[in-house]
Amino acid sequence: MSKLAEVDYNQYLRVHKLPTTWCAGCGDGAIMKSLIRALDELQLPRDETAIISGIGCSGRFSGYLDYNTLHVTHGRPLAFATGMKMAHPKGKIIVVSGDGDSLAIGGNHFIHACRRNIDLTLIIINNYTYGLTGGQVSPSTPLDSSSPTAPYGSIEPTFDTCKVAMAAGASFVSRTVVASPLHMDKMIKAGLSHSGFSVVEVMSNCHINWGRKNEYAAAADLIKHLKDRSTFSAEESEADGKHLLGILRQDAEMKEYATTYYQMVEAVQAKMAEKKGA
Ligand SMILES: Cc1ncc(C[n+]2csc(CCOP(=O)(O)OP(=O)(O)O)c2C)c(N)n1
After folding, report:
1. Spatial CB neighbours of 124, under 8 Å, sequence gap ≥ 6
2. What is the residue with the minimal CA distance to atom 11 of ligand 1?
């Protein structure tokens, strides 16, 4: 049976910032460890790697991970990441974002990053809710579930993050669940290894601000629920709305934005030099 890679986590963390502010049992800790295992295996050069996050519980990643980091305004990590990638196209840039951060206030940036197919990796931690601010409804809150802003149940249909990403043009799209750390490791590693816009949606547990309102107040119960609500079968997912896991799109041939841009700059400069010489 395969097992989790053994890694010295502390060498990737700003240990003086620990313990984390996350609630006991929060999926964010498991996801951060999974990201560390992926970083450890891929050995991306630290000087060329940046981690950017917005506001939210998920926003803490840029505080804890000992890389070049940016902690930016709510909903805007992809905008900052895009600027960073264009200024430094060789850099490996990882954005960690909540479902509120990337699908609600940052939804526009999400769609356009997909459309441009810019070489960034976006890890969306989908915990069904605005965790940090108390559990308000987000674009991925399950229909009929309760929250402080929908005490009688949410009447809003949810976004399927991965379908939106594929429709908008992302070249790598995958989904995993915090209940399956080995699968999570695999998806994050694959996303980081892709050249182009890669989206890794991680279904995660906010048992405190979503679970307590929906009969999953214990972390273990909600993690089990998420596992039960996930499937590797497209048919099953279509039939009863379960979260479809796995790599849903992987296309290395699609044009990447920064590369195309700098190729154009080179071509225009060559043309201008030719004109000058003539
Ligand atoms: C412009 C702006 N609007 C609203 C807020 C308040 N706010 C902070 S975090 C957050 C939602 C966080 O939810 P999500 O992105 O899903 O992340 P999570 O906390 O669940 O990881 C909101 C609404 C803010 N900080 N800035």
Report:
1. 97, 98, 99, 102, 103, 161, 199, 200, 201, 202
2. 130
CA 132 to ligand 1 centroid distance, Å: 6
The ligand 1 atom nearest the CA atom of 56 = 19
Query: What count of other Cβ atoms lies within 10 Å of the Cβ of residue 33?
Result: 18
CB neighbourhood size of 175 (10 A): 25
Whether the per-residue pLDDT at 2 is higher than 90: the answer is no
pLDDT at 1 over 70: no
* Cα(74) to centroid(ligand 1), Å: 6
Taken in order of first residue, the domains within the chain and their CATH numbers are 9-277 (3.40.50.970)
- Least confident among 1-10, 27-36, 106-115, 155-164: 1-10
Q: Assess contact for 53 and 60: CB atoms under 8 A.
A: yes
Please tell me the residue having the least CA distance from ligand 1 atom 6.
133
Q: Which pair of tokens denotes residue 206? A: 């906010």
For residue 139, say if its preceding peptide bond is cis, omega within 30 degrees of 0. no
Question: What is the helix (H) or strand (E) element at residue 177, kind and residue range?
Answer: strand 172-177
Q: What is d(CA 137, CA 122) in angstroms, rounded to the nearest whole number?
A: 22
Q: Helix, strand, or coil here: 56?
A: coil
Contact yes or no for 84/52 (Cβ under 8 A):
yes
How far, in Å, is the centroid of ligand 1 from the Cα of 94?
19
Residue 24: HSE in the Cβ half-sphere, 13 Å Cα cutoff: 2
Do 215 and 225 meet the contact criterion of CB atoms below 8 Å apart?
Answer: no
Q: How far apart are CA 89 and CA 83, in angstroms?
A: 10
**Closest residue to atom 4 of ligand 1, CA basis:** 74
- Please report, as a single letter, which amino acid is at residue 166: M
